[in-house]
Structures are given as C-alpha cells and as structure tokens.
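Why do we care about 3D structure at all? Because function follows from shape, and shape follows, mostly, from sequence. That is the central idea of this module. The next example makes it concrete: a single protein chain, its amino acid sequence, and then its structure expressed as tokens.
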Amino acid sequence: MKQEAIRETTSSWISEDSELEGHFLFSGVTRIFGSVKGTIQGRPHSHIVIMESSRVEGEIRGDRVTVNGLVEGKVFATTRVAVASYGRVVGEIEAPEFDVAFGAIIDGEVRVNRVRENPSNPAPAAP
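And the structure:
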C-alpha cells in the first residue's frame, strides 16, 4: 500500500508536563505528549499524533490519527487511524483505513467504513 507523504506545514505541540481539559481544535500536524481530557478535533487535512508519553480521555476526531500512547474513548478519522506498537486504545475506533502494529493493544470496537465521511458530521444511517 502506497502511503502519501504528510506535509508538516503547521505544527502544534502539547508538552509532556501539560494537563489540559476541554475542547481543542487544531490544524496541520498536532503532537500530543501530555494529558488531555475532553475532545481533540482536527480541521480538514489534519494529522493528530498521540505520542508514547500521552494519555487522552475523551474523543479524537481528525483526518488522520496516529496513536502511540493511551487513548480511553473514541477515535474517528476521515482518512486513516494507525495504532503504533506502543499504542493502546480502550474504546471505539472508526475510519475508512485502519492500521495496527505488532505490540499495539486495542480493547474495544473497530469499524472500518470504506465511505469517507466528515467525523464532525457523520452520514445518516441507511434505512
């Protein structure tokens, strides 16, 4: 499978010592090293990276999401979710493409929906 390069024109960082709570909206590539409770949302063409030292309790929505830390909650992507070797997800994952590395831990439900949708505005269920 050919993977397209990700341009890192805009980067946001949440440092390892940070503890944030609330709703956060990001553009470009965002790397989370600290703890977040709440919602992390990426704008179109975003790439949210949950780093090995991070812990997220809540919901992550973006174009691409890579998990290499702990996520307790829901992960939605319009393009792809990847759970790296140190990644742990306890909850739900939904994306058109899903990648899991050896060593990753997933405790929950994974839905691979080949129809790409806007994660902030899901398509209505079929009758």
